[in-house]
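Hello K.,

You asked for the raw outputs rather than the summary table, so here they are, unedited. I folded two proteins back to back in the same session to keep the settings identical. This is the first:
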Amino acid sequence: MKAKSESRECRPVFLLVTRHSSPVTNFGFTLLELIVVIFIVSLILAVSLPSFNGMGESRTRSEAKRLASLVRYLNDSALSGKETLHMKITFDDKAIRYAGPEGEKSEKFDSLSGIELQSRGMVSEGEIIFFFSPLGATESFTAYLRDSGSDMTVGFNGMNGRVKIRKSDE
C-alpha cells in the first residue's frame, strides 16, 4: 500500500480564471462614448441655432446695416478727402448710386420704402440726391426699410454725422 501513495506526486494546480469563457460581443455604448456624442451634438446646435433665430428679420436688418455703413462711408470720405460726394436714391428700381473716392458704384436695396427729409417730408417715389461736403452733409434724413414682418429705420444726423439703426417700434 505504501507503494501506491509514493507514486502520487503532489503537484500545484494553477487555474486560469477568466471572466468570460466565450468570446464577448458588446452591443451597447459606454457612458463615456454617450457623453462625448451628447457634447458634440450640443456644440453643433449651440453654433447653428442662433443663426436660424429671426431669419425673416435678418434681410431687412442686413440692408439697414449696409445703408448705414454706406452713409457713414460717404460722410467720412467727404470730410477726410475734402471733396463733395453724392448719393442718388432711385425708388423705381430701389437702387442707390453713389460717387465715392473709388468712383461710381450702385447697390440695390429691396426693402427701401421711403425717406423722410427735413425739407420735403416723406418721399417714396422718384429720385433724391444727397450731397456730402467737406463741411458735413447738407441735410438730415430717416430712411425706412420695410419687409414682410419687420420694419427698420436708418437715421442720419447731418450736423454731427451720426447714423442710427432702429426697429420701427422703438
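The second followed immediately with the same parameters:
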Amino acid sequence: MPLKLTVSDLTFIRQLPVARVATATKSGNPRVRPVWPVFDGKNIYFATDSGTVKLKHINENSAVSIVFDDYDRDNWSNLKGIRIQGTAKILNGGGEYKHAHALLKEKYPEYRTAEGGWAYSEIPIIKIAPRSFGKWSDGEWKE
C-alpha cells in the first residue's frame, strides 16, 4: 500500500542526506545507525557494508523504522521529521539492485568515485518497503 505523503513530505525526505534506521534482533533488542538513503517514491534504499550488524538484524527480523528529521539550529522550535515503518529486504543483485545503485550514485557523488563507489553486487543494498508513517513538526515545513 503506497504511503500518502505530500509533495512537501517527499521533497523533505529526498533533500536530506542522512537518515537514521532502527533494526532489531529477533528478540527485539534495537539498534539505531545513520544511513545515506534514497527514496524513489515507493521504496527506500541504502547501501551497507557486508557483515554489518544491520544485515544480521535484518536477517533475523525484517521490521525496521527509518527517521528523516531536521531542525533549525537558530530556532529549535522549528523541528520536523517523518518516521517510516517498513519491511527490509537485502538486495545482492538483479534489476532492483541496479535501479537502487543508480539512484544512490545519482544522489551521492561520493558513490561515483573510486574511493566511495562500488561495482554491481559488490556490497548489499537494503530495500525498505514502507508500511506506515508518522510525522511531526513544530514550526513551518521548510521547502
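The two ends are 26 Å apart (CA to CA).

Happy to rerun anything if the numbers look odd on your end.

Regards,
P.
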